[in-house]
Design goal:
The complex is a heterodimer.
Chain A (H helix, E strand, L loop, with lengths): L1 H10 L6 H14 L2 H19 L17 H5 L3 H23 L2 H10 L1 H18 L10 H38 L1
Helix pairs in contact in A: 2-6, 2-8, 3-5, 5-8, 6-8, 7-8
Chain B lengths: L2 H9 L3 H20 L4 H17 L9 H19 L6 H25 L4 H12 L4 H8 L3 H23 L1
Classes of the chains: A mainly alpha, B mainly alpha.
Chain lengths: 180, 169
């Protein structure tokens, strides 16, 4: 049995579909640069967080005073405000990450660290919201925070999923086809 | 370079060595697991095998690469069967029954089997399949053309399979 199996293994020539072959190869190739890719991802997300403070009334670093841009969102209700706010912050981080990293690196990060990607930025920004250090605003309702977090996760996931899909469909496979 | 040299280089972080091993072993890995699982399951396991090899590459200690890699694949295949809840299938029982023997005798069994071939053919099979030399290298070493080498290897493997078939009966 063993010999038979091993011989069969050695002489197999049925390769996987091209798509799978290309995906796995690129995945491992990028794994060689794991630390660099993840460090840059986190750094750029942080930069996004800092940039978002320009629009954010929370820490008093923005261009506006009081509620600032939040004032306009408030006119549509608290939940709408949470929706806009989370979208803006997470999009800010995601945009800077998309601009600062190669598409193959984002594809790899999404592929390998989906769960962490859901948790990390959302948790970070959610904590900052809770901290609410500089503005003496009345505390937000739990439904506000829940909406914020759900939207934040969805926005983060959407940005990275779209970026990942674009890379996989447009660049990875076309490169693989032309290579063959 | 032999597979063993490539694997050592890969362990040390050489991406080119990984590429070479990947190109050579992709059909072997996929062909082997695709015959034992449904296509979608085989595709998932194929990815797991390469990820696992990458994560465990530092554990490689210069043993013959092909049997070592084969044992790793069988371990993952067994895990997959367990995960899929197919403990009662004959295929799983066959694999499991042989697993302990596989780990200790993989290389020895192959040596025994090769000893049934004429020495020249055995050497050819060993250098190509186990040591991982390419046709180009074999051409230089033996002075035979690549076409002749392919024919001889094909005949040797056919004979080995026939012998193995008789042995199993």
């Amino acid at each position: 049995m063993m010999n038979k199996d091993f011989l069969e293994f050695l002489t197999n020539s049925d390769g996987p579909p091209d798509r799978l072959r290309a995906v796995v190869k690129k995945d491992i190739q990028l794994s060689f640069r794991k630390t660099g890719i993840l460090s840059r991802f986190v750094l750029l997300q942080m930069v996004g967080a800092v940039v978002s403070l320009a629009f954010c009334p929370q820490f008093g670093l923005g261009f506006s005073e009081g509620h600032g841009i939040g004032h306009y969102f408030r006119m549509f209700g608290d939940l709408a405000c949470a929706f806009f706010c989370a979208s803006l912050f997470l999009s800010c981080g995601a945009l800077i990450t998309v601009l600062g990293m190669k598409s193959e690196e984002l594809w790899w990060t999404w592929r390998r660290y989906k769960l962490s990607l859901f948790l990390f930025p959302s948790a970070l920004w959610f904590l900052l919201m809770l901290a609410n250090l500089s503005l003496r605003l009345p505390p937000e309702s739990s439904s506000y925070h829940l909406t914020w977090v759900v939207v934040a996760v969805l926005v983060q996931a959407t940005w990275l999923k779209l970026s990942s899909l674009r890379y996989e469909k447009v660049r990875l496979f076309s490169a693989h086809r032309s290579h063959n | 370079m032999t597979d063993e040299q490539l694997m050592l280089a890969y362990s040390a972080g050489d991406e080119g060595a990984f590429n070479a091993l990947y190109e050579k072993y992709t059909p072997k890995v996929y062909g082997y697991i695709n015959k034992r699982l449904r296509t979608s399951e085989a595709e998932d396991l194929f990815q797991k095998v390469w990820r696992h090899l990458h994560e465990k590459r530092h554990l490689y200690q210069q043993q013959p690469f092909a049997p070592w890699f084969f044992v790793l694949i069988r371990h993952l295949l067994i895990d997959e069967y367990r995960m899929l809840g197919r403990r009662n299938t004959q295929q799983f029982k066959d694999i499991l029954a042989e697993q302990s023997r596989v780990e200790t005798t993989a290389a020895v069994d192959v040596e025994e089997l090769l000893s049934t071939l004429p020495p020249e053919s055995a050497e050819l099979v060993k250098t190509y399949y186990l040591d991982g030399l390419s046709y180009e290298n074999l051409e230089k070493d033996t002075g035979l053309s690549q076409t002749t080498l392919r024919q001889r290897l094909s005949r040797a493997m056919k004979k080995l399979r026939a012998l193995q078939g008789k042995h199993d009966e």
